[in-house]
Amino acid sequence: MEPGHKQPPGVVLTEAQKKRQRERSIAIAVALGVLVVLFFAVTLVKGPAVLQRPM
Predict the structure, then answer these.
(1) Cα–Cα distance, 6 to 1 (Å, whole number)
(2) Could you give the angle at the alpha carbon of 29 between the alpha carbons of 25 and 31, nearest 5°?
(3) Which helix (H) or strand (E) holds 8?
(4) Lower Cβ count inside 10 Å, N or C end of the chain?
(5) Neighbours of 8 (CB within 10 A)
(6) H/E element, 11
(7) Is the dihedral of CA 6, 10, 14, 18 positive or negative?
(8) Digitized pLDDT (tens) for each residue of the chain, 55 residues in all
């Protein structure tokens, strides 16, 4: 690319689109956090007994 040649700005989001994108990101983060906590809780409840099974 030539020096001094500017790239076009690409996709420019409106404020409403930015707000929806942020809300979606927060919802995904919360869902992922709940899933992590759920897996952690199941691990604590089952404990080491999960290894005591017939092979």
Answers:
(1) 9
(2) 115
(3) none
(4) C
(5) 6
(6) none
(7) negative
(8) 566 778 778 889 999 999 999 999 999 999 999 999 999 998 888 877 767 777 6
Cα 27 from Cα 7, distance rounded (Å): 33
User: What is the reported pTM?
Assistant: 0.67
The residue type of 28 is I
* Dist. CA 52–CA 46, nearest whole Å: 11
CA pair distance 43, 47, nearest whole angstrom: 6
Pull the structure tokens for residue 8.
């076009």
- The vertex-30 CA angle with 28 and 17, nearest 5°, equals 45
